[in-house]
UniProtKB/TrEMBL annotation, chain A:
Domain tRNA(Ile)-lysidine/2-thiocytidine synthase N-terminal: 54-237
Organism listed in the record: Phyllostomus discolor
Sequence positions that bind ATP: G57, A58, S59, D63, V87, G170, D175
GO MF annotation: an example: ATP binding
Gene name per UniProt: LOC114511214
UniProt main location, coarse: cytoplasm
Presence of the UniProt keyword Chaperone in the record: no
Alphabetically ordered keywords of this record: ATP-binding, Cytoplasm, Nucleotide-binding, RNA-binding, Transferase, tRNA processing, tRNA-binding
Protein name as annotated: Cytoplasmic tRNA 2-thiolation protein 1
Region (Disordered): 319-348
GO cellular component term of the entry, any: cytosolic tRNA wobble base thiouridylase complex
From TrEMBL, chain B:
Subcellular location: Cytoplasm
Family annotation (PANTHER family): CYTOPLASMIC TRNA 2-THIOLATION PROTEIN 2
Single GO molecular function: tRNA binding
UniProt superkingdom: Eukaryota
Key words of the record: Cytoplasm, tRNA processing
Record bears the keyword RNA-binding: no
Protein name, per record: Cytoplasmic tRNA 2-thiolation protein 2
HAMAP family tied to this protein: CTU2 (MF_03054)
Functional pathway: tRNA modification; 5-methoxycarbonylmethyl-2-thiouridine-tRNA biosynthesis
Gene: CTU2
Any one Pfam family match given in the protein's UniProt record, by short name: CTU2
Organism: Phyllostomus discolor
Coiled coil: none
Function: Plays a central role in 2-thiolation of mcm(5)S(2)U at tRNA wobble positions of tRNA(Lys), tRNA(Glu) and tRNA(Gln). May act by forming a heterodimer with CTU1/ATPBD3 that ligates sulfur from thiocarboxylated URM1 onto the uridine of tRNAs at wobble position.
Main location (coarse class): cytoplasm
Length: 348, 486
């Protein structure tokens, strides 16, 4: 049975059905619709004002590739300028290949690229070193916890280096839905209270962040990359199978099969959660060591690094961070390269 | 488990491992009896301590919340399943104590016969109802058996929210208890002087039952037919389960209102509520979690739904029922033997239970998180006048404007794809366009609502987000439309 004509231009044959509405569209019209919707999200949510210098967190994966491409198309209309910031976590066999993809993209799009590495920022701690350090504790490694916190810090640093006014990341609707499920299953009331919106407005000196793709489903992101023939890196991180997010992801795929709108329904639920005032996070202060945004005396990145340096990696992952001495060893500021407890060079 | 905020335990020392609970272990509470069941993470209880623990939890939940006033009429929603049977049994035992600590409200039991929605034959239904009656007679409370078909004869007033009576402060509760106790101790010139209007004497459950029982009339065939048609017209099992729940709730509330009950107790256990919370998230009901899974649910105004079993896990209930011979009846539900992937409810149930087997703190974590949810709109606009309510679930509507940058806005977005993207329109899209999300382009671009779509669109715009998504799967037949028209 031949495909029906495109519901939009009525000329070309339809190439796909949009997961959201079941509408049959040809490739060109779908891409145009996708871009229009991202533009609408940015404009209606007032995410990126005119004249903003926008740092795009580019990992080489599909989401950030699509984000960078769409924003580059929309940049003249929105009146923004783009900078690519890539983070090198030091995961051997994975990140190097992804960075190569980012470099190719930067060259093709003629966008300035800045690479920030964990090893430089965090005293020689690469993710492989962190994974080795946390591997011996008998429980799951939770190196994804470290990576998430440190990467956001690294992104912030990179954005400041290039003089950006906003940070954008490529989180899509599936990511938001998985995060909501995860936070409930783990009882993470703090993150529930903070998340679920369009991003953070940037309190306490941190740069405002947003996620222009967060209402686009993952399927559509992949389809867009396919129709625009974008070159991206599609392997998963070496440590991903150990992450708790895998459970939430499996569940989400099953839910989507039972009801196609489940992803956006979860995003809607996240937007409308009502938590008790006692559960809301404390007002933002500044970290006593590095001055970054923190709700406690030490920001999470400094706390995690502190734990790593003391040989007790799980020190900052726990209730009340008991045992964490706020007046820890001096000299853990960025820029000073410290010799970590384990090797800096991954022995793969 | 990667649980946020979990305590980090030092790696176990290399000494001898602690002894596994075996025959030599004693009950952790009384240190004397032989344990028969393990609760939570490794606490072994003997039979008597378990019973005391179980009963104490039930009384504590009621006592802590102080919502049930003495002498109040409370309707127990009984499905025949283990949780609600256990609840009914607890109420029975709690009322029959001869101490000052006995429960002080007046119970009734309602059973809703849902056989028509589940596709059971009339013969099977009659058999089930007969079994139910046997147990109800043993229990001895006033009972009401209603068939789900009676939902068609409900007046439209059930869909309106009645004015809420002030629930009273702590002072009011204490005062009510004190006055009740004084009346109890007053010299009894015959028991008639004791009772307040509308209360029954809880000590005489053998009062002639005929007056207050609602016998199950054989359901009218046309209504049974209409009900099966309604449920068969629903395309997905998810929507069927939600519809069944809505109809059942309205029916029970109607029974409560007609017979003067001011509270309804349902037997939702801790496990079921954790699953229900996750399911509600997936259905788009994130705004109403506190009502759906909290202890009290007062969105219907005059009748408050209460969940006293919410601290008990399914395991505890099952063991209690077995050890203390609590009668229950199995009835097939609408999703019995349905494959795991057939509905959101089944998927969540399988997921949570599987995760619980791997990480034993899953259910309690979700439950603890649910206690931190409050009944308020997110932006804190609680001071203003109450907004419109959903027609089906009676919660305040949680719909954003149609073109906003939210999950709802993006699903009702209507961008012309031939022209370059224009700035979003100021006015929200007309309701008929929002009702047909999958409809073709160019439906009515600003031409006003289509006449054909009007009744359905009119209904849909009065629903909350979750109910709208459900309604997409329901073919609103004449029965449904007649019911929901005000």
């Amino acid at each position: 049975m031949p495909a029906p004509p495109c519901a939009s231009c009525h000329k070309a044959r339809a190439a796909l059905r949009r997961p959201r509405s079941g509408q049959a569209l040809c490739g060109t019209c779908f891409c145009a619709a996708f871009e229009a919707e991202v533009l609408h999200t940015v404009v209606a949510g007032r995410l990126l004002p005119r004249g903003a210098v926008v740092a795009v967190g580019a990992s080489g994966g599909k989401d950030s590739t699509v984000l960078a491409h769409v924003l580059r198309e929309l940049a003249p209309r929105l009146g923004i300028s783009l900078q690519l910031v890539a983070v090198d976590e030091g995961i051997g066999g994975y990140r190097d290949a992804a960075l190569a993809a980012v470099r190719r993209q930067a060259a093709r799009w003629e966008l300035p690229l800045t690479v920030v590495a964990y090893a430089d920022l965090f005293g020689g701690w690469t993710m492989d070193a962190v994974a080795r350090s946390t591997a011996g504790s008998g429980r799951s490694r939770s190196c994804c916890t470290f990576c998430g916190v440190l990467r956001r810090r690294a992104l912030e640093e990179g954005a400041r280096l290039v003089g950006a006014t906003h940070i954008v990341t490529g989180h899509n609707a599936d990511d938001m839905a998985e995060t909501l499920l995860m936070n409930f299953l783990r009882g993470d009331v703090g993150r529930l209270a903070r998340g679920g919106g369009l991003g953070s407005p940037g309190e306490g000196g941190a740069l405002p962040r947003c996620r222009p793709l967060h209402l686009a489903s993952q399927k559509e992101v992949v389809l867009y990359a396919h129709f625009r023939r974008l070159d991206y890196f599609s392997e998963e991180c070496v440590y991903a199978p150990e992450a708790f997010r895998g459970h939430a992801r499996d569940l989400l795929k099953l839910l989507e099969a039972a009801r196609p709108s489940a992803v956006l329904d979860l995003v809607h639920s996240a937007e409308r959660l009502a938590l008790a005032p006692s559960a809301r996070p404390a007002p933002a202060g500044a970290c006593s060591r590095c001055g970054a945004l923190a709700s406690r005396a030490l920001c999470q990145a400094c706390a995690l690094l502190d734990g790593l340096d003391r040989g007790r990696p799980r020190l900052a992952i726990g209730k009340g961070r008991r045992g964490l001495d706020e007046m820890g060893p001096p000299g853990l500021h960025r820029g000073q390269v410290q010799t970590p407890a384990s090797e800096a060079v991954p022995s793969f | 488990m990667c649980q946020a905020g979990e305590e980090y335990a030092e790696p176990p020392a290399e000494g001898p491992r602690p002894p596994r609970p075996g025959g030599e272990q004693k009950c952790v509470k009384c240190k004397e009896g032989l344990p028969v069941v393990v609760i939570r993470a490794g606490d072994a209880f003997c039979r008597d301590c378990f019973k005391a623990f179980y009963v104490h939890k039930f009384r504590a939940v009621l006592g802590k919340n102080r919502l049930i006033f003495p002498g109040e009429k409370v309707l127990l929603a009984w499905s025949g399943g283990p949780s609600s049977s256990s609840m009914v049994w607890q109420v029975l035992e709690g009322l029959s104590r001869d101490s000052a600590k006995r429960l002080r409200f007046v119970p009734g039991v309602v059973y809703v016969d849902e056989g028509a929605a589940c596709g059971q034959s009339l013969g099977d239904r009659a058999k089930t109802v007969a079994e139910m009656k046997l147990i109800l007679q043993t229990v001895g409370f006033h009972w009401h058996i209603v068939a789900l078909e009676e939902v068609f004869s409900l007046p439209p007033s059930v869909l309106r929210c009645f004015a809420q009576e002030p629930s009273g402060t702590k002072g009011a509760y204490k005062a009510a208890v004190d006055s009740f106790l004084q009346q109890q101790h007053a010299p009894a010139q015959g028991k008639e002087g004791l009772s307040q209007p509308g209360t029954q004497d809880p000590q005489n459950p053998s009062a002639p039952p005929s007056a207050a029982q609602t016998e199950a009339q054989p359901p009218i065939a046309a209504q049974t037919e209409a009900l099966s048609r309604l449920f068969n017209s629903v395309k997905t099992l998810t929507a069927k389960e939600e519809l069944l729940q809505t109809l059942r709730t309205h029916l029970i509330l109607h029974v409560a209102r007609t017979h003067g009950y001011s509270k309804v107790m349902t037997g939702d256990s801790c496990t079921r509520l954790a699953i229900k919370l996750m399911t509600s998230l997936a259905l788009g009901r994130g705004a109403f979690l506190a009502w759906d899974t909290g202890f009290s649910d007062e969105r219907h105004g005059d009748v408050v739904v209460v969940r006293p079993m919410r601290d008990h896990t399914l395991k505890e209930i099952a063991f209690y029922n077995r050890l203390f011979a609590v009668p229950s009846v199995f009835t097939p539900a609408i999703d019995t033997k349905a494959p795991e992937k057939s509905s959101i409810h089944r998927l969540m149930e399988a997921f949570v239970l599987r995760l619980q087997a791997q990480f034993p703190s899953t259910v309690s974590t979700v439950y603890r998180t649910s206690e931190k949810l409050v009944k308020a709109p997110r932006d804190g606009s609680a001071g203003g006048p109450p907004g419109p309510r959903c027609l089906l679930c009676m919660c305040a509507l949680d719909i954003d404007t149609a073109d906003s940058a939210t999950a709802f806005g993006v699903q009702t977005l209507h961008l012309s794809q031939m022209q370059p993207p224009t700035p979003p329109a100021e006015a929200p899209t007309t309701p008929c366009c929002s009702a047909r999300v999958g409809g073709a382009q160019g439906c009515c671009q600003g031409a006003g609502p289509c006449g054909r779509q009007d009744p359905r669109a009119h209904v849909i715009e009065q629903l909350c987000y979750g109910c709208r998504v459900n309604m997409k799967d329901v073919g609103l037949g004449p029965a449904g439309a007649a019911r929901v028209s005000d």
